[in-house]
Write a structure and sequence with these properties.
The complex is a heterodimer of chains A (110) and B (120). With 110 residues, chain A is mainly beta. Helix content of chain A is 0%, strand content 53%. Chain A contains no helices and eleven strands. In chain B, strands 2, 4, 5, 6, 9, 10 and 11 form a seven-stranded mixed β-sheet that branches. By secondary structure, chain B is an all-beta fold. The chains are: A mainly beta (110), B mainly beta (120). Chain A binds chain B through residues 1, 34, 36, 38, 40, 45-48, 51-52, 57, 87, 89, 91, 93, 96-104, and chain B through 39, 46-49, 52, 60-64, 96, 98, 103-108, 110-113.
């Protein structure tokens, strides 16, 4: 059973930079896992920020970027704003048409 | 503009079968490349990928749910459906239907989600 791990919570100051990560219970995350990042605010469906590791979805501000850092996928927010306070989920493709979500990171901007 | 809308009972009894339908409008469910997907989110918890279906009927399921889940597609009605058998309180969640824009792509269109509660 593949487990995808994320930091449960993170805090960033307005204008600051934060990097959220997405790891695997066994092994390293690579581009072959097509890491995708979603942002979700309460009561709303998720929306895509980044797909295929580092491709920004249409309309997503360029302060959001995706990468592989070490053995994990990473989402970096540069110049955090108050409305970036949300839940962030990564999802990885683990083969055979199967995707696994991470547990999500609750980001606080204060 | 593509729209997806979930429908089905909001309350299901334990041990019974949960059935939901997603109606797609503004586009054809038979378009190639797209995978039609179900995702759920228990109250206050994270997202869980349930499974996907291609318009041809090819399915992919979460291994932890595979024994109880069936996803089907009805191209004549532009709908796809989810059945979860033998439900328990752990199946209480907001259920979302969504479109994956390609085999390795993201879920680019989502329904608004529907809360299904499992309770007697």
């Amino acid at each position: 059973q593949t487990v995808v791990s994320q930091e449960p919570s993170f805090s960033v100051s307005p204008g600051g930079t934060v990097t959220l990560t997405c790891g695997l219970s066994s092994g390293s995350v690579s581009t072959n896992y097509y890491p995708t990042w979603y942002q979700q605010t309460p009561g709303q469906a998720p929306r895509t920020l980044i797909y295929s590791t580092d491709t920004r979805s249409s309309g997503v501000p360029d302060r959001f970027s995706g990468s592989i850092l070490g053995n994990k996928a990473a989402l970096t927010i540069t110049g955090a704003q108050a409305d970036d306070e949300s839940d962030y989920y990564c999802v990885l493709y683990v083969g055979s048409g199967i995707w696994v979500f991470g547990g999500g990171t609750k980001l606080t901007v204060l | 503009q593509l729209q997806l809308q979930e429908s089905g009972p909001g309350l299901v009894k334990p041990s019974e079968t949960l059935s939901l339908t997603c109606t797609v409008s503004g586009g054809s469910i038979s378009s190639s490349s797209y995978y039609w997907t179900w995702v759920r989110q228990p109250p206050g918890k994270g997202l869980e990928w349930i499974g996907s279906i291609y318009y041809s009927g090819t399915t992919y399921y979460n291994p932890s749910l595979k024994r109880r889940v069936t996803i089907t597609v009805d191209t004549s009605k532009n709908q796809f459906s989810l059945k979860v058998t033998s439900v328990t309180a752990a199946d209480t969640a907001v259920y979302y239907c969504a479109r994956r824009g390609g085999y390795y792509s993201d879920l680019d269109y989502w329904g608004q989600g529907t809360l299904v509660t499992v309770s007697s």
